[in-house]
Amino acid sequence: MNPNPYAWINKSLDTIRRADWYRSPQLIESCPGPVVKLAGHWLINFASNDYLGLAGDDRLIQAAIAATQEFGTGTTGSRLVGGHRDLHRQLEQAIANLKQTEDALVFSSGYLANLGAIAAIVGQRDLILSDKYNHSSLKNGATLSRAQTVEYDHCHVEDLKAKLEQHRGSYRKCVIVTDSVFSMDGDLCPLPQLLDLARQFNCMVLVDEAHATGVFGASGAGCVEHFGCTGETLIQVGTLSKALGSLGGYVAGSAALIDFLRNRAQTWIYTTGLTPADTAAALEAVKIVHQEPDRRDRLQQNIETLKYCALNKSQLPISNSDSPIFSFLLKDAATALVASSQLKEMGIFAPAIRPPTVSVSRIRISLMATHELAHLQQLVEALGQI
Ligand SMILES: *Cc1c(COP(=O)(O)O)cnc(C)c1O
Prior knowledge:
Number of domains: 2
CATH architecture of the largest domain: 3-Layer(aba) Sandwich
Oligomer: single chain
Order of helices and strands: HEEHHEHEHEHEHEHEEHHHHEHEEEH
Number of strands: 13
Bound molecules: pyridoxal-5'-phosphate
Mean pLDDT: 95
Helix content: 40-55%
CATH superfamily of the largest domain: Type I PLP-dependent aspartate aminotransferase-like (Major domain)
Strand order of the largest sheet: 3-9-8-7-6-4-5
Distance between the termini: 52 Å
Low-confidence stretches: none
CATH topology of the largest domain: Aspartate Aminotransferase, domain 2
Number of helices: 14
CATH class of the largest domain: Alpha Beta
Strand content: 15-25%
């Protein structure tokens, strides 16, 4: 009998299961919000990237409905071939205005924005310096670009400097690539120091503001604003699917950069334009980010409250973070899975994050502007019992 060329799939699945790395999606049966219905039970939701609580906001829903009624469900083609709508341009201008950049370009996801931007700006004779903890999309963008990629220790400016001294001279262009808020630990990159090194070594900087847009900075522009770096020449990438409550991604930067990407970013040129519904919802969200700074204040209050209750009062082993992302570190994947299901029994939805996503298994907790004090108290109590 011939060997089955697909037999490896079940074998691989068995290996994944034995390591407690097996994953499957969990069904949410309600609108997004601080409380969600999961497999028939209402749980307090600490598993969402909807930091400002906009994904279930009626204004976004109405904007998406109106855009769909006017322009249909799909854009029917790539932006360059029949898929371009005025809504896209309005959103791009709104993002550029938020970021105080000359222009912006909207992609179908943040993942595609990173793949497309990185692969377009560097190539075989170039160098990428990449933070070890960067998001998967940044790492895969580097692979796709075929540039030489050197990882530096997480947020370690001295290590980055040593690596620039060692490698920079052998390559044509160079880009330093980093998350601004790291998606698993919630810590912030040392952006001003990275920009200093970039000037010193003639490098570009690409910063992924996925978890920072709408959350950091006085006007919600992100970590670039938070660090007082607005107006610096750098490449900002981000998503419409976290604090902005929709779906899609963007690159913001100089007019020349955006013009270049429209001509060279394969993940923008060869994919269908963002749907009218997603575009209109994101546009509405950017307006709300401008109009309702109190949402950011409430989120910041929740971050302070959790830190005070969990770290100072209860001395729980959670990461100390200035962002809405916290992690409760556990010794292995099996322990993290047990902890997550115990939390569920206590009314808390917070996922176990395991290798290969992170090296140390953990419960990941993300806060929203719309969490109430009682939600946070219940979380601290539940974590205390674990
Ligand atoms: C979520 C995320 C992305 C991907 O964004 P999507 O719009 O969900 O594809 C990219 N980078 C980082 C750091 C992220 O956390």
